[in-house]
Amino acid sequence: MHSNNPVERKWFEAEIAPHETALRVWLQQRFPAIDHLDDIIQDAYIRVVSRHRIKPIDYPKAFLFATSRNLVIDFLRKKKIVSFENLREIDLETVLRSDEDEIQKQIHRLEQEVIIWEAINHLPKKCRRIFILRKINGLSLLEISRELGLSVKTVEVQISIGIKKCKKFFESYEEGDVR
Q1: Average pLDDT over residues 65-71
Q2: φ, ψ for residue 61 (rounded to 5)?
């Protein structure tokens, strides 16, 4: 990331650049199917710096990680590739060493995570973004409100809407109305 503004460049070098290695490792662990992390990270840098130009970012590292994660999710959604937080690939050796009950448990867990992400993907864009920041990234209501320029009450309402819509999605799914 190059900038002609020395103050902006100094902020970037102090607040953002030191996290690149950790960000790269974090993204690779969570999204092993993504093979072009350089593009994702560069896009994240551009978005973070652009946002910082408009309004100073209180938690630059959290904002960088959340932005990068959202870029990956958008990419996966567009490509219709499924990838999930904290999922490990089931390798052949694990399958061969596992008994049938363990394999069924792993499959069930994966199926549940697919359903959860389907529910999240059905949320309205603003609600989905807030819901992911809170429930997946673990940001506080205050952090989300600061990062998105919304009131804490708006964030609370959107999370409540997200929970209700996800619950309704799960109920519809169990009844066989969603796929």
Answers
A1: 85
A2: -65, -50
Residue 144 in tokens: 């989300």
Report pTM.
0.47
Length of the chain, in residues: 179
Tell me which residue has tokens 């630059």.
60
| Residue type (1 letter), 15 | E
d(CA 133, CA 141): 9
* C-alpha distances out from residue 34 to 75, 94, 120, Å: 9, 23, 20
pLDDT exceeds 50 at position 92? no
CATH topology of domain 91-179: Arc Repressor Mutant, subunit A (1.10.10)
Tell me the domain boundaries of the chain.
1-83, 91-179
Q: Check residue 175 and report its DSSP letter.
A: T
pLDDT tens digits along 110-151: 667 777 888 888 899 999 999 988 888 888 999 999 989 999
**Which of 161, 85, 170, 151 lies closest to 127 in space, CA to CA?**
161
